[in-house]
Amino acid sequence: MATSRETAANKRSSSKSGPARRTSGGAKKAATPDQGQSDLIRKPPEIAKFTTEEDSQAYRDMLLIRRFEEKAGQLYGRGLIGGFCHLYIGQEAVVTGVQMVLKEGDQVITAYRDHGHMLATGMDPKGVMAELTGRRGGYSKGKGGSMHMFSRDKHFYGGHGIVGAQVSLGTGLAFANRYRGNDNLCCTYFGDGAANQGQVYESFNMASLWDLPVIYIIENNQYAMGTSVTRSSAETHFNQRGVSFRIPGMEVDGMDVRAVKAAAEEAAEFVRGGNGPIILEMKTYRYRGHSMSDPAKYRSKEEVDKMKDREHDPIERVKARLIDGGMSEEDVKAIDKEIRGVINEAAEFAQNDPEPDPSELWTDIYAEDGSEAA
Amino acid sequence: MTIEITMPALSPTMEEGNLAKWLKAVGDKIEPGEVIAEIETDKATMEVEAADEGTLGKIVVDEGTENVKVNSVIAILLEEGEDDSALEGAGPSANGAASADADDTGGKTEAASDERETPAEGKVHPEPKKPEPSSLPEVPEGTEMVQTTVREALRDAMAEEMRNDDRVFVMGEEVAEYQGAYKVTQGLLDEFGARRVVDTPITEHGFAGVGVGAAMAGLRPIVEFMTFNFAMQAIDHIINSAAKTRYMAGGEMGSPVVFRGPNGAAARVAAQHSQDYAAWYSHVPGLKVIQPYSAADAKGLLKAAIRDPNPIVFLENEILYGQSFDVPKMDDFVLPIGKARIHRSGKDVTLVSFGIGMTYAIKAADELAEMGIDAEVIDLRTIRPMDLDTVIESVKKTNRLITIEEGFPQSSVGDYIANQVQRRAFDYLDAPVISIAGKDVPMPYAANLEKLALPNVGEVIEAVKAVTYKD
C-alpha cells in the first residue's frame, strides 16, 4: 500500500506581485522582528494655530452638531424619535477636525453614534432629523432611523448598528480605492468598545498586509456603553492596538479641534503616500449617556462637569479663541442664532413631514437589474 | 508474498485520478516513505509514498494513464527474497478493491478498503442523466453542447464576467496562488493577476466585511468561502451588512456582492463541515439564494449573480464539482435568477429539489418509471426568490408533491414549499405533501451513520408510493 502527501497543488506563480504584496518598504514596514516598536507609537504633531477663518468654520461646524443633538434629545423626550438615539455631544471636535483635511471622494464610515459624522460630511440636517423622526423625507425614507443613513453624494457609508462591523466595511471601502488606483482614503471611525471586537484585528491585518488607504479613528470616549475602558480593555492605549500588525498610531487630544486637524493631516499624508493604514486614538468624552435611555449612573456628575467646563469643552475652547482674536460677542451670537435657525428649520421639517407611504414597506429590498449606479 | 501498491485517494470525495509520473523503475529498491510516483486530480497534484520496503517488481498502470480508479493496483512490490516468479497471478487481474492478500496495511479490513474505493458510500450520487431539451429554453436550437464539469463551469463564469467588467474581482482563502482549495478558481490568477484574484488571510468575518465594503463602494466582489461552514464566522456581514443595507438606506446604497463556495455535506467530514445552509439564507429578505445542480445552471446562474445588483448567496456542492454536464457553447450564456427548471415532465407526482438533492430525485424518478409511476422533477435552482408558480402549476397537474433536500428538517425549504402549496393549491392536492430532508441530527462521521443521516432514493420512492397510494 502507499500513503500520500499533498504537495503544492499547482505551479506557484511567485513572480506575481499585485496589490496583495507590499510595494514599498516604508519606514514603518522596514522594521525587522527584533527591532523595537518605537516607530509604531508616534507622537502627535505640533498643534498648528488656526486662522480666524478656520476657527470660525470649526465653531460653526461643531455648534451645528451640538445644537442638532440637543434638539434630537428634546424631540426624543417628546416621543417624536423612537428606538435608540445616541448623541455625539462632547465629541464634536473629532469629526470636525478630521473632516477639515479630507478631499472630494474620501469616504467616511462609522457606527451608530453617527449624526455628527453625517452633518460633518455636509449631509442636510433636515434629512437627518427627518430620518430620526421616521419620516419620508429622511435620508433613508424613514426606514433606517438614527443608526442607518447613507449618502453616496457625500461619501458617507453609514451608520451601522453592529459594533465593529463598520471597521471591516471601511477597510473594504479603502480596498476599493486601492483597487481603482485613486488617491482617496477612508476614515473608519469606531469607539473604545468596538476596539475589542475580533473583526477589528482581522481588518487591521488585511489593511496593513495590502497597504490600504484607511485611517482608523478610535473615538475613545472612555465608556463602552456603561463599562469604563479600564474595566473592559486590557490595553487602554488604543493607539498601540495596531502594533501587532505594524500599524502606527498616535494619541490625540480629541477635545481640541486643532490637535485633531493636525493629526488627521499627518495621517492623511501618510495614508495617501501608500504607506498603509494608521490609527488615531482620539481622547474624547461624551457628555450624555450611551443612548437616550441611559441615565449614566456609572460615572459621577463631577467627572462629567469637569469635561464640560470652559477649559475642556471643544466648542467653548474655540469660542474663547475667537473672542480673544477679536471677534465681538455680537458676531459670535449671530453665528449661534444662525445655527439655531438651521436646526429649528430641520426640527420643524422633521415633525411636519409625513410618514412614509405604507407602500414603502415593500420597496428597496432588492434593486432591479441594471438600476445600480457604479 | 507480494505487496500491491494501490491508487491513493487525495480526499474523501476523490474517485479517480491520473498517474502522472513514475519516479521509480522496475528493479529499483524502495524504502518506506520514498516518493515513487506522482498522481494528479482536477484539484491537485500529489506524491505517492511507499509504505513498505521492497523492490519494484511490476508497474501495472503506466505513467500518463488517466482516470485510474482509487484503490486499483498500480504496481507490485517484491518483498525481500522474492523474485519475478512471485508476480505470477498478481497484476491487473487482481484489480479493484484491495484484495485480502494485499491487506497488509495494519488492521485495514476488506470492508474498509471497499469503503475507500467508493468514498463515503452514502455520498455516491446517481449519475446525472441528460436534462430534457426543454429544460434550457434560453438556448437556441442547434447550439453545440460541451461536456463540462461544474467546477469548470463556475470558473468559466467568473472568468467571462471578469473579462467583461473590471469591477469584478475574486477574494478568499487560497483562491489565487493555490488555485482554489477546490480548484474552482484555477487559472484565474494567471489571467487576471493578483489585483483581481486576492488571497486573504483566514479571517472570514473580516474579509466578508471587506467584500461588502468594496461592493458598497461600487466594485463587484466575488467572495469565496472555502466552505459555507466557515461563513458562519461571517454571517453577520452577509445578513446585517449586505442583505439589509439597501432597505435601511432607503435605496441609497446597496452591496452587489456574490458569496460563493461549497455548501452542504461533503463526505466523511462530520458535523462542523457538513451542513446545508439553503434554508438559513433563504429566510433573509434582501438576499438572493441560488443553489444549482447542473454545470449549465452553475455557469448561467453564476454569471447572472455576478451581474445582479443585489447580494447573492451562491451555494455550490463539493461532490457535484467533478460531475460533467452538457453546457451550451454560447458567447454569453446567462440564466434568469428565480426560475425553476422542469428537469423531467411527468403526470403522477411532482418531485421538487435543488442542488445535490436533485441526484436523489432523478434517480427515484428513473426507478419510479420502471414501476409505472410517471414523476415530474423540478429543479428549483434558486431558493430565493422562489419560483413557486412552476411548482404549483405542476401540482395542479400531478396532485401530489414530494420535496427533497439534504438540510435539516425543521423549518426546511421543503416545509416552506408545503406551506405555500397548501395555501395556494389545497384543492388540487390528493395527498399530504411530504418533505424529505436530512435527519434531525448533527452529521456523524462514521460511513454507515453518515449514510443514514442523509436522504436516500428509497425514502423518495416510499414517499411517492405513499402519496400515490401504491401498495
UniProtKB/TrEMBL annotation, chain A:
Q: Which cofactor does it need?
A: thiamine diphosphate
NCBIfam families linked: PDH_E1_alph_y
Q: Where is this region: Disordered?
A: 1-53
CDD domains cross-referenced by the UniProt entry: TPP_E1_PDC_ADC_BCADC
Name it. Pyruvate dehydrogenase E1 component subunit alpha
Q: How does this chain assemble? A: Heterodimer of an alpha and a beta chain.
| Key words, A-Z | Oxidoreductase, Pyruvate, Thiamine pyrophosphate
Return the EC number.
Answer: 1.2.4.1
Q: Dehydrogenase E1 component domain location, by residue?
A: 61-358
One GO MF term attached to the UniProt entry: pyruvate dehydrogenase (acetyl-transferring) activity
- What is a biological process (GO) this protein takes part in? pyruvate decarboxylation to acetyl-CoA
Q: Which reaction does it catalyse?
A: N(6)-[(R)-lipoyl]-L-lysyl-[protein] + pyruvate + H(+) = N(6)-[(R)-S(8)-acetyldihydrolipoyl]-L-lysyl-[protein] + CO2
Instruction: State the function annotated in the UniProt record.
Output: The pyruvate dehydrogenase complex catalyzes the overall conversion of pyruvate to acetyl-CoA and CO(2). It contains multiple copies of three enzymatic components: pyruvate dehydrogenase (E1), dihydrolipoamide acetyltransferase (E2) and lipoamide dehydrogenase (E3).
The encoding gene: pdhA
* Gene3D superfamilies, A to Z: 3.40.50.970
Superkingdom as given in the UniProt entry: Bacteria
- Bias (Polar residues): 1-17
- InterPro entries to which the protein is assigned, alphabetical: DH_E1, PDH_E1_Alpha_Subunit, Pyrv_DH_E1_asu_subgrp-y, THDP-binding
Automatic annotation (TrEMBL), chain B:
Record-level Gene Ontology MF annotations: pyruvate dehydrogenase (acetyl-transferring) activity
Q: Where are the transmembrane segments?
A: none
Look up the record and name the cofactor or cofactors this protein needs.
(R)-lipoate; thiamine diphosphate
The keyword Oxidoreductase belongs to this UniProt entry's keyword annotation: yes
**Compositionally biased region (Low complexity):** 89-100, 133-142
Q: Which UniProt keywords apply?
A: Lipoyl, Oxidoreductase, Pyruvate, Thiamine pyrophosphate
- Ranges for domain Lipoyl-binding come to 2-78
On subunit structure and binding partners, the annotation says:
Heterodimer of an alpha and a beta chain.
Cited function? The pyruvate dehydrogenase complex catalyzes the overall conversion of pyruvate to acetyl-CoA and CO2.
Name of this chain's protein:
Pyruvate dehydrogenase E1 component subunit beta
